[in-house]
Amino acid sequence: MTPWEILLTTLVLAAELALAVGLAPLLTSVVRRRKSRSQRRTGPSMIQPYLDLAKLWGKGTVYVESSSAVTRAAPLISFASLLAAVPFVPWFFLPAPLGFAGDLIVVVGLLALSRFMTAVAALDAGSTFGGMGSTRDMWIGALFEPTFLLVIFAWGAPSGSTQASTIVLHGATLGAAHLSPALLLASAAFALLLLAETGRLPVDNPATHLELTMVHEAMVLEYGGRDLALIELGQSLRMVLLLELFVAVLLPWGIALSFGLAALALALVLLLVKLLAASALLGELETRVAKWRLFRVADLAVLSWVLALGSISLTYLVGVG
Amino acid sequence: MSLAPGQQLLEVLAAVVLVTSWISLVHRRVAALVRLYAAQSAAMAAVAGLVAYLYNAPILYLTGATIFGLNAVLIPTVLLRLQRDLRVPDEVNMLVSVRTSGLAGLGCLLLAVAVVGPLTPYAEIPAAGLLPISVTVVLIGLFLTSTRRKAFTQVIGMLVMANGVFLAGLALTFGLGLLLELGVAANLLILAIVGRLFLFRMKDSFDTVDADALRALEG
Amino acid sequence: MSLLPYDLLLLATPVVAAALVMVAPSRRVANSAAVAGGVVSAVLVLLLLSEVLSGGSVREPYGLLAVDALSGVLLLLLAIVGLASVVYSVDYLGWEDSPHPVSLERLRRYHTFVLLFLFTMFLVAEANNLGLLWIAVEGTTLCSALLVGFYHTKRAVEASWKYLVLCTVGLVFALFGTLLLYLASEASVGPAGASLDWNVLITLAPKLDPGLVRLALVFLFIGYGTKAGFAPLHVWLPDAHSEAPTPVSALLSAGLLKCAVYALLRVDAITVRMPGFSFATWLFLGFGLLSVLLAALFILVQRDLKRLLAYHSVEHMGIISIGIGFGGFLGLFGALFHMINHAATKATLFLAGGNLSASAHTKDLEEVSGALTALPATGTVLLVGGLALAGVPPFSVFTSEFLILTAGFASGDWAASALLLLALAIVFGGLMMHLMRALLGARPHQGFSTVPRRFLATALALGLLFPIVVGLGLLLPSPLSELLRQAVKVVNG
Amino acid sequence: MILVDLPVALYALSLLSFALAALAGVTSRSASVRAAHPSLALSLVGLVFGGSLAVLQLGAPSAWGSELVVPGFSAAAPGITVLDFGLTGLGAVFLLLLAVVGGVVVLASLGYVARFVHERRGPLAGLIGLFLMSMELVITSQSVFLFLLAWEGMTLVSYFLVVHEHDSWEVRRAGLFYLVMSHAAAAGVLISLVLLGAGTGAWTFSSIAAGAGRLGAWQAGAVFVAALIGFGTKAGVAPLHVWLPEAHPAAPSNVSALMSGVMIKMGVYGAILVPFELLGGTPPLWWGFTWIGLGALSCLLGVLNAIAQHDLKRLLAFHSVENIGIIFLALGASLVFLSLGAPLLAALSLLAGLFHTWNHALFKALLFLGAGAATGSAGTRDMEALGGLARRMPYTALFFLGGAMAISGLPPLNGFVSEWLLFQSLFGAFTTGSLATEVVFTAVAGVLALSSGLAAYCFVKAFGVTFLARPRSEAARSVVREAPSSMTAAMGALFGLCLLLGVAPFLLLGPISTVASGLVGAPPISYSAGGAFGSLPRPGSTGGSLAIGVVALGLAAGLLVVWLLRRMGSGHAAPRGAAWDCGIDAPTPRMEYTASGYAQPILRLFGGFYRASSHLEPRGPGSPRQGSLAKTGHVEVEVEYPLVAGFYSPLTVAVQSLARRVSRLQSGGIHAYLGYMVLTLIGLLVILRIAGGGAP
Is residue B122 part of a domain? Predict the structure, then answer.
């Protein structure tokens, strides 16, 4: 790479990081707005999440007296690993800035890392709810980790690569033929994964205030101040990350392949549209379903496995790709 | 041609050996068993002498004499004395009924014939027909040893087996040569002595010569 | 040709020693006379072997006695084990303060019988003739029966009676089988050329009538098999071994059983030369496998140390017989080698076990615990010996078993070899279960007697055997391997 | 002549120092802590020599060896009992592993043996020396006989290490179970090697490999299966793994670390040795798929059982089963690729397998040492009685957490790299063009992902319950000191290695990959080597690439930024308060989530697998009223192991009862005995009669 390209890549990297972190609360509030609208409510204002974060950031923190250094380290590591996952996903420019350095399996690893740290920290306070949330969250995560891998295999099979950029590029160049049944099945599986990973209904209810039904909320019950802010932001970041991956693979068209103002602008606009639409869809979905019993989530996981594996066999039965 | 009568006599003597062992199968009195054994041994001795005469194998005269002296006279007297000294009750107690024993004797004969019969007859060897008989006697001896309660009668059973073997040795092989004959005889004698010793010990420690009393060692 | 008829001297030595013992005025004299007998005969055996290795075989003019490599192997192990147990006896019951003291004249009787027992076994090894062989084997039965019943306890009487009856019955069969062989030779070449000298029989082998020989084999196997402790004819063995004085148990298990197998080997040497005749092989494999498998099961549930070792003898006789059955150079080599290894290992265990039960006052392994901490020396010997007996490398037993298994797999008897391995695994489990229970554990559950005992003779005896147990697995001195190879040649040409 | 040969000299020296170590350990009679040190130091020296030998071999791959024929036997049984030693590339990989992990564990033992010196049980240090020696012998033996000697020696010595605390009968029982099972397995090893020898007529590995082509398909299959049983048991592949969770908790922790870290890897070594080096050629497909099936089984069985444990060391033992499963997945994939004629992919998966072998050795040794430190100082292995150790033994906690993250396959630690490699090689199935392989391998990838997810679940529980929150019992409260410095140093070293291999795997991958491609006859795997920043291979056109260094860098950068942001302007230390308790009353340790409670969702989900039974132990007076919500007491969850309950124990019982029945043959009645004679005679005569002239 020429220094020029390196410079541009660095710029793109910075831009995408800023974009991801900046967009995260917005998309969350889009989901909430969508829900409140379909429930005939005037929900909170669109910038409410930003205000919450600012308020939390201003507050001091209190730690449980029996807690150890893990409690303090966990939010940092968990957030940092999400942050580190951003540049492995193509946003508005191909190839993804760090695409050369890692593929989607790395993303899986980083997400798992952040989950792991949160779950460990949840046990540190020694309260009952922390353990409850921790075990449930790890349980869900373990069930859906295979889904992620299977989906990666299914997505990567046509292009013969697990590299996000390669997959998207292959799709973008393929045109309409890209939307093969195999891809759709795999993406459906990914959608289920997305619900579980981001703690959405029917898996988890992010808006609940009843400890016994909490999953993610129960884990972070003991957190406050900047730590909590990081956790909340991280949760939104995780959502936007997965949403972006979803739309980028499903609808790869319009992403910028070269440094041209027009191309970049178009890519940015399309990116925004896709993400907003996706999150609106998510909110719509959340209003349609109720929370499931924890153990029914397993059925969801199994369904997602079946979808992904089906897509694999389909790929080569139909001979697409 | 001239051998024929001698052959027949041989057969007859062999039959005597067989029958004595048979009777000892069904007889209920110990002393009678001893006497039967003596008679059998005497017949054996006669066999030896006859074979020696018919096939001019002089060594066998000596053998016959040994058998007579040892098996027909010495050992039986020793045994009878022993029975008196040990006060061995005179009735044989069997593990199986008399009828069964008799039938078993028949079975022994049939088995022997079935096994030895198909063997090719040997022209060079006279009296090859005695082989089944000796096998039968051995089997009967084994049967006696294993179905009679008294250790005393077990000894008699073993002696009968030995007789069966001797019959084969005499009739079929003209003996094994002097030295071996004597060796075997000596062994028999020592066996009798050792057996006698142990019978006394058994009487001492168990106050009976019933081999069924020996059941301490198991597993 | 040698200066002296070592073979005759060897036979004479124990008898002379026995005579000396009988007139010995004191324990010291009796013991030393017995030990001297053992030592001298061991030396004579070595001289004899050196002659055999150089000259091939030593024959006595009348042709009744002869020593070739095969009998050399037997003589060697008899000399070693005999010497070891005679020496061990001195500490075991030789003095007033021994663990099992006896009166002087009973001590005389004991030594006499042991020496006569040795004599008869030497005779077995030197006999050149199936008839004489039979006489010698029967002789061993009579002497050893007296030794088994040496203690006049009820159990001893019972054991010796069973031993006497079963082995005698068996040997009558053996005699009958011998006769049938003679008959076969007679049938092939007529009365004139008939003989029981196996060198003759070997030359006649191709002409022998297979039917007769098969019949003979049945009787011979039942006869000598009883003596060798093949299942299911082994039933006398655990009783005799457990009731006899410990040195005698060692002698029985290590020497006597081998004598019986030796007799069968002599017969095998004839039958292998009969074209297309494999009945003997079947019998060896069948009895061997049956013995190994049954013994394995018996070992699992056996708690009495000496009976346990006795069942191990059954197992190992089975292994030897399987090795002979596999045949070929490798199989026979393994079998003969295993004879030596098993003799040394088993004797070691019996003697060390004697120490253990002498200080623990029980033969029941369930009642002993922590022996390794209580008696470091004896415990270690037991541990190593037990591992060796279980076929753990690098000890000698493993090597011979490995050779036998290799022979099996090479000759295509996969099933037999696999069964053998299975049985060996079960045996290993059983032995380890019992042994470790007794050896390990922190403190002995019941007091070990800490009375200072004489240990010189014990140490000497074990010191004689232990190197064989440990060393022979990795390092086979070339004279020995030469002897074994010649012995294999004797059997299968 | 032999002295100028550097490898031989190193080899001899290392064996010599091991022997001396054993001697020193056995002969030392004083009961002081120092008494064990000379022996351990000598072992270290031996490991250093061995390690340098391995490095030498990996540096300049030229298989060396020298023949040593046992006197007499060469003449007696031609060539069969030859003792042949040498070091192949594969051997070097494992020898280095032995040197590194063994060395660290010996270092830890310096402090750890202090626990044992006052109870004069046995020469622990000397046995450790022997143990290391036997493993080095296994790796360096190049002939059937020597291999068997070394193999059995290894089993035996490890048995005596396991029963070191032999005054408790559980320990003796576990030890016996282990000993018998491994001996039975050794029969498998013996069969496979002897079949090879008998089939090829050669008894040294090199000549066997040369002549292996002569073996028939059935023979080769038999060799493979026997080797699978033999080595699989030692490695702990399900369903042959049952000795592992018994033996590991029974042994002292440094021994468990050695066994789980190195010894079971000897099973992996053998499993690679037989098909790849000795048999060679193109394996039939079913070999690979057998391994894959067993590997998948082990993964799930291992991790699921691990989750159900609350004995910390049993939990770790079951995780060994899981990781061995992962290794066998990789090896199986490699065999399959070989059969499909894709050597490059075969090399890649073999590389993944070997690398994961290393990684597992590192983090499992680390975890066992950590567990040893924790349970040793608390005096109990029951997690329900631990807790709150993090604040008393911070270093142990930190390193244990690191090991937990590594074994859960989280970046930027070594576990992630080897799993990534395995995923990539599985993904390679899409280039083979065989649909079956594609679907199976994708499913396998799913299994792998599931098991690593569950592993993460399990280790959140293990770490959290053991080290976090408040002490759950007096035992845990009694812990006041950090583990001895030698142990923390050892754990630190292992953690450093995990991190190093996670960030810069090329340090090790380079040499290993040459070995791997050499074994499968593939061209060397090409990757843009650039130290930490080089990217891992993209075999053929497919796969992805990974510059784990960059990932780690990004992570670090992110961490730094966030940390700075959080610190900005919040000067004063954060105050501390009570945890939220719904306003009931002050939370007590009894309100903390227990290990069983944590495992409950999985137990419920896989109830059919566990047949877990939970029953409530009423506490205090009066039994709980039915239907009332507030029951006093605590719930016991018991998990039964279908494999053991359903197969192993019935087998043992059956054999035992059979033995008891058979032993009644020895009824004591002389007439019965004579009867046996009669029956045998009659039986043989009848056989003779039936066979008649037909008998041979």
Answer: no
**What's the whole-number average pLDDT of chain A?**
88
Closest by Cβ to D666, choosing from B146, B212, B219: B219
Confidence band for A261, pLDDT divided at 50, 70 and 90? confident
- Residue A153 clears pLDDT 50, i.e. is over it: yes
Q: Looking at residues D230-252, what average pLDDT do you find?
A: 92
Decide if B36 is inside a domain: yes
Q: Identify the helix (H) or strand (E) that includes residue C67.
A: strand C66-67
Contact yes or no for A127 and D579 at CB 8 A: yes
Summarised one tens digit per residue, pLDDT across range D476-519 is 888 878 888 899 999 999 999 999 999 888 888 888 888 898 89
Interstrand relation of C58-59 and A63-64 (parallel, antiparallel or unpaired): unpaired
* Residue extents of the structural domains in chain D: 1-221+246-279, 670-696
Touch of C by A (3+ CB pairs closer than 8 Å): no
Residue C137 belongs to a domain: yes
User: Degrees (nearest 5) of the Cα angle D348, D351, D357?
Assistant: 145
Residue with tokens 């100028």: D4
User: Within a domain: residue B75?
Assistant: yes
The nearest alpha carbon in chain A to D585 belongs to A127
What backbone phi and psi angles, to 5 degrees, belong to D216? -75, 165
Domain residues for the domain of C372 are: 6-492
Split into its structural domains, chain C has a count of 1
Residues contacting residue A240 through CB under 8 Å, at least 6 positions apart: A20, A23, A24, A27, A275
Residue B2 lies in a domain: no
Per 3-state DSSP, chain C is made up of helix, strand and coil in percentages (nearest 5) of 80, 0, 20
C-beta separation of C138 from B187 below 8 A = yes
How many domains does chain B contain in total? 1
Q: Classify strands C66-67 and D633-638 as parallel, antiparallel or unpaired.
A: unpaired
* Helix D217-235, helix D312-339: angle, nearest 10: 160
Pick from D113, D147, D140: nearest CA to D128: D113
pLDDT score recorded for residue D115: 66
Max alpha carbon distance in chain A (Å)? 61
Residue D75: per-residue pLDDT: 43
Chains B and A touching, counted as 3 or more CB pairs less than 8 Å apart:
no
Min Cα distance D551 → chain C (Å) is 51
C243 located within any domain = yes
- For B203, the domain range is 7-117+128-213
Q: How far is D180 from chain C (nearest CA, A)?
A: 5
How far, rounded to the nearest angstrom, does the alpha carbon of residue A317 sit from its chain's CA centroid?
Answer: 31
Q: C336 CA to chain D: closest CA distance, Å?
A: 12
In a domain, C248, yes or no: yes
Which pair of tokens denotes residue B152? 């005393």
Has residue B213 got a pLDDT over 90? no
Query: Across the interface, which of C157, C190, C211 has its CB nearest the CB of B124?
Result: C190
Residues from chain D contacting residue C482 (CB–CB below 8 Å): 75
Least confident of A172-176, B102-106, D544-548: D544-548
Closest partner residue to C475 among D72, D175, D180, by Cβ?
A: D72
Instruction: Give the 3-state secondary structure of residue D617.
Output: strand
Q: Does the CB of D430 have a partner CB in chain A at under 8 Å?
A: yes
Surface-to-core class of residue D567, CB atoms within 10 Å of its CB (0-12 exposed, 13-18 middle, 19+ buried): exposed
* CA distance linking residue A22 with residue A29, whole number of Å: 12
Average pLDDT over every residue of B70-91: 89
pTM of the model: 0.92
CB contact under 8 A, C191 and B124: yes
- Mean pLDDT, chain B, whole residue set: 84
How far is residue C30's CA from residue C330's CA, in Å, rounded to a whole number?
44
Q: Subunits that touch chain C (at least 3 Cβ pairs < 8 angstroms)? A: B, D
Q: With an 8 Å Cβ cutoff, are B211 and D668 in contact? A: no
- Averaged pLDDT, C452-461: 82
Kindly determine whether residue D662 and residue C298, on different chains, have CB atoms separated by under 8 Å: yes
Which chains contact A through at least 3 pairs of Cβ atoms less than 8 Å apart? D
